[in-house]
Design brief:
This protein is α+β, with helices and mostly antiparallel strands and 854 residues long. Helices cover 48% and strands 14% of the residues. The strands form 4 sheets. Strands 16-23-22-18-19-20-21-17 form an 8-stranded mixed β-sheet, with helices on one face. Strands 9-8-7-6-10-11 form a 6-stranded antiparallel β-sheet. α13 runs antiparallel to α14 and α18 runs antiparallel to α29.
């Protein structure tokens, strides 16, 4: 039950906990670690077996109940007698180690210092403990600290089962430190690898770790050993010399090499100047790098997932399908890919999100000019980062001529008859819309798979859609919408200073021909039907969404509600939250979210604020504004302006159509992959049909050939669950881990949180912070604060009074729909979901781009 640290290795983690295992590994590798012993988890289990712990209550209790349960458990552990033999073993080990002198008594839990959860500071540490009685008391207090409220909440948050956790205790000889602190072998703020960051102060390191002092800070480049930054607390003499800093940085690199990942270490310098390492654990906050990082110099990665409004990770099958679609895009631009399933080299995966290597765009004259302009209306914060990188000397121009880009663009335009599409849309917008409807119908017909198709044929069909069909949607369907948006730019030029941005924005309110708006209004109409029937209204408004979904599948909802939901799903059941991931269920698979939104709509009883009434008022305001602006311009300029503004209203709403058709295609892919999954279940190759979405397309074929994929699926499900809990995803980062946006000042403006104006108007209301729309509720008049949105979120907009988003640009999905509903919106607000709390009053100024907390 008590063993020497020198005899411990990583294989004993279950017996000694994460901290002791890491210390043992460092001692075995020859690092300077103070000697010590470990009181193992078996000792804790011997004591804890006499304590009744209600694990289920600890996992589900409310905060006040949680505090009570945790306190009762701690008191029980402290009250249970320690076996005499164990006490003797601890005391004898302490005497041999320190001869009665001071020691550090430190907790070492089995769920501690993990790659994805450090548990830093969750259990207790006691320093300068002297004498047998105090050592025994400190050991017991460490055991009890496994059940502090903070530790229980941390385990709940990270999805760690309380029943699996044990605690050991490390007893180490104290270092009489003159200087101590912490050292990160990668910059934990900017994410940059190859940069050591040291915080240190005179005395014990615990003062630095706990935040009790303002330490000196140092940054050292690992490759050159150059000290980039010295920041002394009071502007006086730093507590570490240059030589000591370089020695520490070199030691940190060796520790990182031992574990194969950046480390968060603690150190102390004794009176002789010798460095002692007292802890090492992974830096869990670093965003993972793609496998291709630094293969070919410094690279720039742009998060395609975030640009599509998707914060959560993609399933392995979702990523696999995205790779094939990326191969199709590369082929469209005359850049063939050897293996379409592997994707082009510019498609990379990091943190189970899809990133695009945009290094060549940043280093090309056309790319660095065009891409930020596109992102200005889609993801403005990424645009700002890319403009900043264009000025970085490390990304100097390597492609000066635009001819290759122009050649490819002209070829695509001629191949897909883009000029003819633009002319048709300008002269005959109704005919252009009808053509798009027929194109969509033809595409849908090509997606029909004969019922007798084999499993292999279904897989072939899915790959064919991904590689051949979806890529055509952009050049085939986007030109009319692009013309509509372009007409707004023409109108802006014609008016000059005669119209404000707010007035021009009014023209786009109540915009027709937008499939996402049509979807939301169709859902509202379903709510109106249900609300008119007292029985249906009572059931939908009174039961939880999960129960409503169960009843819907059982066909036991009231007839009006069953029929209304059927009709909505027959037209829009292929949509979903995070719908670009084929691995996630569509609304027709799981209508829980839609039924929850319907229940929310039934709470809105003000006819004036009803969504369809608001939409109609928006359209009337837009027509009135067109008349005003035309009159203001006058003459021939006025006639040109009317044409531009009318075409903008005729066509700009079509911007959602290519995405809509892509989602229809992805739903067809999902349908066929689900059938493949059902076949694999029948063969016993996978446990359930949805397991196929934790394989890739290539692995699905291997499974059909008899490969056992169950272990891979289990491991990937665990990794996916871990990534679901990740709160921060970089929109742009470099291959050395640096987040350019993290280098900037994150304090915001004094007058409020600054973002990009997206929908004009000012509203004050209660903030409702939502990270996942499924099951979420927005009370009428509340302001939605979200990390990002895709069309699956927009049903929530109908009752929201305003919108704040961390991501997005002026023409991202959320911004467009907010404008059409006439609700003020600000997008691209850094850390909005962290800085704004549900329940506080905020003011959203959609004209200035400011959000103020009241």
């Amino acid at each position: 039950m008590v063993i020497s640290l020198a005899s411990i290795h990583s294989g004993l983690c279950a017996q000694v906990g994460g901290k002791a295992a890491n210390l043992g590994e460092m001692i075995r590798a020859g690092f300077p670690v103070p000697p010590g012993v470990c009181v193992t988890t078996e000792a804790y289990a011997t004591v804890a077996q006499n304590v009744c712990i209600d694990f289920s209550a600890l996992g589900t209790a409310q905060s006040h109940q949680l505090r009570k349960r945790a306190a009762e458990t701690r008191e029980a552990l402290l009250a249970v007698p320690t076996p005499p033999a164990l006490e003797r073993a601890i005391v004898e080990s302490y005497q041999r180690l320190a001869g009665g002198g001071p020691v550090a008594v430190r907790s070492s839990a089995t769920a501690e210092d993990l790659p994805n959860a450090s548990f830093a500071g969750q259990q207790d540490t006691y320093l300068n403990v002297t004498g047998p009685e105090d050592v025994l008391r400190a050991v017991r207090q460490c055991w009890a600290s496994l059940w502090t409220e903070r530790a229980v909440v941390y385990r709940n948050t990270n999805g760690i089962d309380h029943r699996t956790v044990r605690i050991a205790v490390v007893i180490q000889r104290m270092v009489d430190s003159t200087v101590a602190g912490v050292m990160f072998t990668a910059n934990p703020v900017t994410g940059r690898r190859g940069e050591t960051v040291i915080d240190a102060s005179p005395g014990l390191g615990e003062a630095v770790v706990s935040g009790a002092v303002n330490p000196d800070r140092f940054e050292i480049e690992c490759d050159s050993a150059r000290i980039r930054k010295r920041l002394a607390t009071a502007g006086g003499q730093p507590c570490l010399s240059d030589g000591q800093l370089r020695e520490l940085a070199a030691l940190g690199r060796r520790v990182e090499s031992l574990y194969g990942a950046p480390q968060d270490t603690e150190f102390a310098l004794d009176a002789t100047g010798k460095i002692w390492l007292t802890q090492a654990r992974p830096i869990t906050t670093l965003y993972p790098l793609p496998e291709s990082s630094l293969v070919d110099g410094l690279r720039v990665y742009f998060c395609f997932s975030l640009a599509q409004g998707l914060v959560r990770p993609l399933t392995p099958m979702g990523l696999s399908c995205a790779r094939v679609m990326a191969s199709a895009v590369a082929r469209l631009f005359s850049m063939p890919v050897d293996d379409p399933l592997a994707g082009p080299h510019t498609f990379v995966e990091a943190g189970q999100r899809a990133y695009i290597d945009v290094t060549n765009l940043v280093r090309g004259r056309v790319g660095r000019s065009l891409m930020p302009r596109v992102l200005d209306v889609m993801e403005s914060r990424s645009a700002a980062v890319l403009r900043k990188l264009a000025k970085d000397e490390r990304f100097s121009l390597t492609t000066h001529t635009p001819w290759l880009f122009l050649k490819r663009a002209v070829r695509i335009a001629l191949l897909h008859r883009v000029p003819q599409q633009l002319i048709e849309a300008l002269i005959r917008p109704r005919a252009a819309r009808e053509r798009l409807r027929l194109v969509g119908k033809r595409i849908a017909n090509r997606r029909a798979v004969p019922p007798s198709s084999s499993t292999q044929e279904r897989l072939d069909f899915a790959e064919r859609i991904l590689l051949n069909e979806i890529v055509r949607l952009g050049p085939t369907m986007l030109p009319p919408a692009a013309l509509g948006l372009g007409m707004m730019a023409v109108a802006r030029k014609l008016l000059g200073s005669k119209a404000s941005a707010v007035e021009l924005e009014t023209v786009l309110r109540g915009l027709p021909h937008n499939v996402t708006t049509d979807m939301d209004l169709a859902l509202w109409d379903a709510a109106v039907r249900i609300g008119a029937d007292e029985t249906a209204r009572t059931v939908i408004a009174g039961e939880p969404p999960s129960e409503l979904a169960r009843r819907y599948r059982a066909r036991s909802l009231p007839a009006v509600a069953q029929s209304a939901v059927d009709e909505f799903l027959s037209q829009y059941g292929h949509r979903a939250v995070a719908e670009i991931d084929v691995g996630l269920p569509r609304w027709s698979d799981d209508p829980t979210h839609i039924l929850g939104v319907l229940a929310n709509y039934l709470r809105l009883d003000d006819a004036e604020s009803a969504p369809r009434a608001q939409f109609t008022k928006g359209a009337e305001a837009a027509e009135a504004m067109i008349h005003t602006l035309v009159q203001r311009a006058g003459g021939f300029r006025g006639r040109l302006l009317r044409l531009a503004l009318c075409r903008a209203r005729d066509l700009a709403g079509l911007r959602e159509l290519p995405k809509y058709q892509m989602v229809v295609a992805l739903a067809a892919v999902r349908r066929e992959l689900t059938k493949v999954g059902e076949e694999l279940v029948r063969r016993g190759e996978i446990a359930e049909k949805d397991d196929i979405f934790f394989l890739t397309l290539g692995e699905a074929r291997e499974a059909l050939a008899g490969r056992n994929c169950k272990p891979v699926i289990c491991e990937r499900r665990q990794r996916y669950e871990t990534e679901l809990r990740r709160r921060h995803v970089p929109r742009v980062f470099l291959s050395d881990g640096t987040e350019p946006e993290a280098v900037a000042d994150g304090d915001g403006h004094r007058q409020g949180l600054a973002g990009t104006p997206a929908s004009a108007g000012i509203v004050t209301g209660i903030a409702r912070v939502i990270s996942d729309p499924v099951g979420a509720r927005i009370e009428p008049g509340e302001i939605l604060v979200a990390p990002s949105t895709d069309p699956g979120w927009t049903p929530l907009f109908l009752t929201a009074a305003g919108l704040v988003m961390e991501m997005g640009g002026a023409n991202s999905h959320g911004a467009v729909v907010a404008r059409e509903y006439g609700i003020p919106a600000v997008v691209g607000v850094p850390s909005a979901t962290a800085l704004i709390q549900s329940g506080i009053r905020i003011t959203v100024d959609g004209s200035s781009g400011l959000v103020r907390t009241l």
